[in-house]
Write a structure and sequence with these properties.
single chain; 51 helices; about 70% helix; flat
Length: about 1150
């Protein structure tokens, strides 16, 4: 490569990473990829280029890298080299593989001043080489020995060496492997066994020298860089996946680190722990935080690493001593990162060291007192380190959990731990309450706004409180009582307040304090042990529950007097959470007798039913007062749903007068949230719960059901006579019917039983199906019609076989006729408006879905559920030439054609409903149509082709199934013609008559020799099947996806139809590959049809699917990336 070439490529690299425009970047990228091909893309594999193999590309990259000091060039060359190695490693000779690795190491050694990101890229290439060549190349296994030359050279070399090791350890041990997982996991395991300990010892030795200041630095930055590189290396080594599991399976703050036994000498080194604690004390942030991160990992090692108890004891005592010194001296705890990592250290140390082992250590009582004092200060430091409470509480939670099964802790330790837990609870609650006005005044984030995280933390507090539950509960109540007095005084002064705004601010502070207290009380009650029945504990929870109900009474009296003027969302959410926890602990079948002791005295609540009545009244109040709050209504309805879930719970709930009133008057004026147009999703959930409650009694008869449906009858009757289109256009009618359809959709969606659904069917179909049909006709194409369409899509859904009509019933046919009428009525209007808007160009892109595609998508869903429901005898419709089936299919094809292909793939719900319908259509009904327009045929083929290339697995699966259905039909028709069984054969006379009737219901038989229209179109467009074959086969060959089973089904059928083109295509693929790989690819492709007899039988189809899976597995195992074809071969 000449100097001129080097300068040219350097300028292109700069344009690639620092472009003046997108076009400049794309142009530079194209030129560079063509000149340095990786042979994974046909566009870069030019036969006229001087580079004809991966080895040539690697050599060219080496030359460019050596001749240019530009970081842009270094970045491009190393990234390109990594792609090349990953794709074509198997094609390099043994000598080339060794030389490439040696070059990278020499290059790094000769350029110790490389930028850190360049070193990281170089180390990543080395890691990739090491993984790929570990099993076959011995020179790759001396990672530590190769980097040792860096460590023994200058300081700059040492920094580079440590950086390279850190990146290699990280990349050799990723959370998961995308390809060849078993092979790479084995390499990572052998790397762990042979190299990682030596690398860790090198890192530790360097850390020792840094602590002892035994290294001479020429400038201050050298020391900082070496500290960072060394600590990063040690963190990576200690975080290595020693188990060989993925990161998700061994969570960061949960698992014990399974350090191998060979590491024992390192951990038993007398200076090991002291070096890390000294480094923490000596190093300034952020390096001290990295040292603490190492200590977190060290404290998590398995107990069995040590040979005897003495060594283990010394290790534990050393960590306890180090923790004590840090707390006593507040060493580095003024830095947030240090503070967070130190709290993690406490949590992880307790997670891996059993309580009885800690208690045995000398000075444990003093040590645990230090931790307690630190914890109390940590609670008070909520502004400084707001995220550490979880770790501190986690430490004490594990202490308390251990106390339940370690019986021989000693009286002193048990007494001390019990006293500490009480103090912790008191301090945490007090600090949290005192922080409320500060958070409000300063506008700080309130943890209650992230309810899930707050609940997780408070659950730990609840577990700690159960260590000394009576004392802890008394402490909580003593904090609660004064605020209750303050709350009552504030309410009493409401009329004398000079400023309403000041009253509102004071009320917000008090009610937010109560919200915290109610959440905490919920955590206390909710952490009741299921296996521990105690009258004393139940009485304490009864006292807590009484306090909550008293508070709720005061709050509800305020709401009764002033309506929605003074409302606190957090407090009402806290009440909901409390009732959820109360249900979990005390509303089961067996427990809860003593929980009502205090409640009976104060409120007269003596059993579950009365308690449920209180909860239900709160639910109804929320539905009234919070009508405009979607979140709170949702949480309220979720509580309602929980209460209605379960056989015993739902039966108890039905005994309550409040519940009976709701079932009888579920749309009465007091259910205010139903009047809010934004609560549609919540209305659906509301009626789902009512459906569960109604059918909780297995013996629900028609009278009970019709009593429940009376409010619907009244709502429809109140609309007046709906005998004209104009009547449906009235705003009151539109809105009322929209709400009715939404409510009915929610009501029928949870129905699983055939008997229950038939009750609804009989009520709705006889009286109100005509209302639905006229509403669709009147409203189309206005978006309000979508609610009616969505209801009918749920109505025709045969979930759990609930539409199992009697064999002689015509209900299925009647339902489909209505479905056809609905789809046609909507379709005509939407197509008419679509034509008008195309002429006027008035439909904005942002309105497309709501005004057009949502309705079309729902129509697709209606028909797909009808076709796939298996409750409509379509053969009868075809036999008797019922126009409903023809009209529905004709309309659905017109609706498909009205959707541009780009839009079809842009809207996920539209795409899914379309391909689901296409899958159902191609199974039978599409083939029964007498004819289909050429435009519709081409659209369907193009849609199938686009669908299989979709990244959505559901869409791809339906598209593959559609192609398979079409090809299966063609194969069978072709076989029939080959056998010479014509439709007028005497042996098939009845079948021929049925076929003629099917195809003559709208038009006469095709004039082209009597062939099916699909066969004729395929003859007229001979490129159709080759194009489909090329698309599907390309995905199998070149796309690394997990849908091989779905793709193999249409591919096999296409191969049967295009045998010659299959041979031609595979030959072209083989010719496209590098010469060194052609023999391997030829064998792999020939094996695709091994054991396949070439007929469309389930056995052959499954064998072909196995062959496809074996083919992909073989490619991945050998790290082979096939070079795709630039263009498919001609089919003629």
């Amino acid at each position: 490569m000449s100097q001129l070439d080097t300068a040219y490529f350097s300028s292109l690299c700069e344009q690639l990473f620092n472009p003046k425009s997108v076009q400049e970047r794309e142009q530079a990228q194209l030129i560079l990829e063509q000149n340095f091909p990786t042979f994974t893309d046909s566009s870069t594999n030019s036969r006229e280029s001087s580079i004809q193999s991966p080895t040539d590309t690697a050599s060219a990259l080496r030359v460019l890298l050596e001749n240019s000091p530009s970081p842009y060039v270094q970045t491009f060359c190393l990234s390109r080299m990594k792609v090349l190695v990953q794709a074509q490693f198997a094609l390099f000779s043994q000598e080339a593989k060794v030389q490439l690795r040696s070059f990278l190491l020499e290059y790094a050694f000769m350029h110790p001043d490389l930028m850190s990101f360049v070193i990281a890229q170089l180390a990543s290439v080395l890691a990739t080489l090491t993984l790929l060549g570990w099993a076959d190349i011995d020179q790759y296994k001396d990672v530590h020995k190769d980097i040792l030359q860096f460590i023994q050279a200058s300081v700059n070399h040492r920094i580079v060496g440590m950086h390279i090791l850190a990146i290699m350890v990280q990349d050799i041990n990723p959370p998961s492997f995308s390809k060849s997982a078993a092979k790479f996991r084995k390499a990572a395991g052998e790397f762990r066994d042979t190299q990682l300990l030596s690398i860790s010892e090198t890192g530790f030795k360097t850390l020792e020298e840094l602590v002892q200041r035994a290294i001479h630095f020429t400038d201050a930055t050298q020391e900082q860089r070496l500290k960072e590189a060394t600590l990063n290396l040690l963190i990576k080594c200690f975080s290595y996946d020693f188990n060989g599991t993925s990161g998700d399976e061994s969570g960061e703050d949960v698992g014990i680190i399974q350090i191998p036994s060979s590491w024992r000498s390192l951990f038993e080194n007398p200076t090991f722990l002291s070096t890390f604690f000294s480094a923490y004390c000596d190093f300034a942030p952020p390096y001290s935080a990295k040292v603490m991160e190492c200590l977190v990992q060290i404290a998590s090692v398995r107990k069995t690493l040590f040979n005897d108890q003495d060594e283990r004891s010394r290790f534990v005592v050393a960590i306890m001593t180090g923790i004590s010194e840090i707390i006593r001296n507040s060493q580095g705890l003024n830095d947030t990162d240090n503070y967070n990592e130190f709290c993690r250290l406490l949590y992880r140390f307790r997670a891996t060291v059993p309580l009885n082992e800690m208690v045995e250590k000398p000075g444990y009582i003093n040590w645990i007192e230090l931790i307690a004092d630190f914890s109390l200060r940590a609670f008070q430091s909520w502004k400084f380190a707001p995220n550490t409470s979880m770790y501190v509480l986690g430490f004490w939670t594990r202490i308390v959990q251990s106390m339940t099964y370690y019986q021989q802790l000693g009286d002193e330790a048990v007494e001390k731990l019990g006293n500490i837990t009480v103090e912790l609870v008191r301090s945490y609650v007090t600090t949290t309450i005192e922080a409320v006005p500060v958070r409000i005044d300063e506008g700080l984030d309130d943890p209650l706004e992230n309810e899930d995280s707050a609940i997780e933390t408070l659950n730990m507090l609840g577990q700690i409180a159960h260590c000394r539950y009576e004392v802890s509960s008394n402490a909580l109540i003593n904090i609660f009582n004064p605020i209750t007095v303050e709350y009552q005084d504030l309410i009493n002064q409401i009329n004398s307040q000079a400023s309403l705004e000041s009253f509102r601010e004071a009320l917000e502070i008090v009610e937010t304090k109560f919200a915290w207290l109610v959440y905490i009380m919920a955590a206390f009650v909710g952490n009741r042990s299921a296996f521990l029945n105690s009258e004393d504990l139940d009485k304490i929870d009864s006292e807590i529950t009484t306090k909550v109900l008293q508070l709720m009474d005061v709050q509800q009296s305020l709401q009764t007097q002033h309506g929605t003027t003074f409302m606190n969302e957090k407090l009402d959410l806290a009440f909901i959470y409390f009732f959820q926890q109360f249900k979990k602990s005390y509303m089961s079948e067996s427990n809860g007798r003593d929980i009502y002791s205090k409640l009976k005295k104060v409120f007269g609540i003596s059993d579950q039913v009365l308690m449920l009545d209180v909860v239900m009244r709160k639910i109804v109040a929320n539905l009234q007062y919070w009508a405009n709050n979607e979140t709170l209504i949702r949480r309220t309805l979720e509580l309602f749903n929980e209460l209605a879930t379960g056989y015993g719970a739902s039966k108890n709930l039905r005994k309550i007068e409040t519940t009976r009133l709701i079932l009888q008057n579920h749309m009465a004026s007091q259910i205010a949230f139903c009047e809010n147009g934004k609560q549609m999703d919540n209305r659906i959930l509301y009626f789902q719960v009512l459906c569960k409650l109604l059918f909780a009694d297995d013996n629900v008869d028609e009278r009970t059901f019709y009593e429940f449906m009376k409010p619907f009858d009244l709502r429809i009757a109140n609309l007046g006579p709906l005998d004209s289109i104009e009547a449906f256009h009235q705003d009151s009618v539109r809105n009322s019917l929209r709400d009715i359809f939404v409510d009915m959709m929610g009501f029928i969606s949870p129905m699983q039983s055939r008997r229950h659904f038939i009750l609804f069917f009989d009520w709705f179909y006889e009286e109100y199906s005509s209302v639905l049909l006229r509403a669709v006709e009147a409203w189309s194409p206005d978006p309000i019609v979508n609610t009616a369409l969505s209801f009918y899509a749920e109505f025709v859904h045969n979930k759990s076989q609930r539409l199992g009509f009697e064999i002689s019933s015509a209900n299925g046919i009647l339902m489909f006729r209505d479905a056809s009428q609905i789809v046609c009525s909507y379709g005509r209007q939407i197509l008419k408006r679509d034509q008008e808007q195309q002429q006027q160009s008035v439909l904005d892109d942002s309105q497309k879905y709501d005004y057009k595609y949502k309705g079309i998508s729902t129509c697709f869903s209606i028909l797909s559920k009808c076709f796939g429901g298996r409750y409509v005898n379509f053969g009868v419709l075809w036999l008797y030439q019922d126009k409903a089936i023809n009209e529905a299919l004709d309309m659905v094809l017109q609706l498909m054609l009205s959707v541009p292909m780009e839009d079809l793939l842009s809207f996920p719900e539209l795409s899914l409903s379309f391909f689901n319908l296409l899958d159902e259509l191609t199974r039978e009904q599409l083939m029964c149509m007498p004819s289909v327009s050429p435009e519709a045929f081409l659209y369907l083929v193009k849609a199938c082709e686009s669908g299989v290339e979709s990244s959505d697995s559901s869409i791809r699966s339906h598209a593959c199934s559609s192609i398979y259905n079409i090809c299966t039909f063609v194969v069978k028709e072709t076989e029939k013609m080959e056998r010479g069984n014509q439709s007028n054969s005497s042996s098939n006379n009845s079948e021929a008559m049925l076929a003629r009737r099917r195809r003559s219901s709208v038009a006469s038989q095709s004039s082209m020799g009597g062939n099916h229209w699909l066969i004729n179109y395929l003859h007229q467009t001979p490129a159709t099947l080759p194009s489909l074959f090329s698309t599907v086969f390309n995905l199998v060959l070149f796309d690394d996806n997990s849908d091989q089973w779905s793709l193999s089904r249409p591919l096999y059928a296409l191969i049967l139809l295009q045998r010659d083109y299959f041979i031609k295509y595979t030959s072209a693929v083989i010719d496209q590959q590098l010469p060194e790989r052609r023999e391997f690819v030829t064998t792999a492709l020939n094996n695709l049809l091994e054991g396949v007899s070439g007929i469309l039988s389930p056995k052959d189809r499954e064998r072909f699917t196995q062959n496809v899976s074996s083919f992909r597995r073989l490619l991945n195992l050998n790290s082979v990336a096939l070079v795709p074809l630039a263009t498919p071969p001609p089919f003629y």
